[in-house]
Amino acid sequence: MKEFILIFRHEDGHKVASPEQIQIWMKQTMDWVGGIAAQNKFVEGNGLPFDDSRVVWHNNVVTNGPFGDIKETIGGYIIVKANSVDEAVEFAKGSPVLQGDGNSVEVRQIAQRDSIH
Question: Residues 103, 96: contact at Cβ < 8 Å?
């Protein structure tokens, strides 16, 4: 079984939802992750706060991030086990992140340690 990272992209991280809407999305997300975990295919995951971050560029140039040059923001990720990228995509299709206009879930296979060499 392979591991895949599902990266949650928000079209505009500057838009702030109401505390009530955030609570609804968190519940939906926990239920969605719980469904994956019930299949023994959840590995790990976490949210990524939008504040107090930096981007380090070539020649050690540091900018405030992640908003510097892009509007899109990475809001978090989960890692799942799946037999194929298509199975991982099916997990991604259930993400509550997709309720937001312009939001997306990027699905990428994680390289196995022994294949990196």
Answer: no
18: pLDDT strictly greater than 80: no
Please indicate whether residue 97 or residue 114 has the higher confidence score (pLDDT): 97
CATH for 2-116, options being 3.30.70.1060, 1.10.357.10, 1.10.150.130, 3.40.50.720: 3.30.70.1060
User: pTM value?
Assistant: 0.83
Could you please report the per-residue DSSP string of 2-34?
Answer: EEEEEEEEES-TT----HHHHHHHHHHHHHHHH
Least Cα distance to 39 among 101, 90, 73, 109 occurs for 90
Radius of gyration of the chain (CA): 16
